[in-house]
Inverse folding.
């Protein structure tokens, strides 16, 4: 299956045991880009031929992390959760709520004018009470756009707010993000 150079290799996913098998294909024509796609139940990752084994392993691990993140997101439906939380905490329902793999610095964002909410796909594996807190935070922005005392009063209706903030702060620190959870939640 390789187009030249070193032969295609199977990747030992290590921490990614519940993911599909991986097939790595090295190509001398590929100059810098890496691509990945599913083919017959196998995640096929194409890399430049000049990658060292360490670079290959790092890149395939990164691809698997992203794949796993998308897989987890597909198993956590946000719309019914947002409807239930809006009703429970007296907040408006969003026009739409979706996962976003582009939000790498924020946990969520809200466009108060359109009613659209985006939740970082990094939270797909977080405990449900943490995800609920981020959704409540963004729903509160549909009422109050800023982070005023009125806004915090809405968010603090959630009995798990302080606990979730602590979890997000720790998660931010683990990821070496130099920001507080309030900054990460800011939208």
């Amino acid at each position: 299956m390789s187009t030249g150079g070193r032969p295609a290799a199977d990747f030992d996913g290590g921490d990614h045991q519940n993911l599909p098998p991986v097939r790595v294909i090295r190509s001398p024509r590929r100059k810098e880009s890496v691509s990945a796609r599913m083919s017959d139940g196998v995640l096929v990752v194409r890399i430049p031929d000049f990658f060292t084994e360490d670079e290959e392993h790092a890149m395939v691990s990164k691809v698997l992390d992203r794949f796993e993140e998308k897989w987890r997101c597909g198993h956590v439906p946000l719309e019914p959760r947002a409807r239930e939380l809006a009703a429970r905490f007296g907040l408006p329902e969003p026009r739409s709520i979706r996962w976003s793999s582009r939000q790498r610095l924020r946990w969520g964002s809200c466009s108060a004018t359109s009613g659209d909410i985006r939740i970082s796909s990094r939270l797909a594996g977080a405990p449900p009470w943490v995800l609920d807190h981020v959704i409540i935070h963004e729903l509160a922005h549909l009422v109050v756009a800023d982070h005023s005392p009125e806004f915090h009063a809405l968010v603090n209706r959630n009995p798990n707010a302080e606990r979730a903030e602590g979890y997000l702060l720790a998660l931010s620190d683990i990821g070496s993000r130099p920001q507080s959870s309030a900054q990460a939640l800011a939208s």
About this structure: The two ends are 46 Å apart (CA to CA). The longest helix spans residues 53-74.
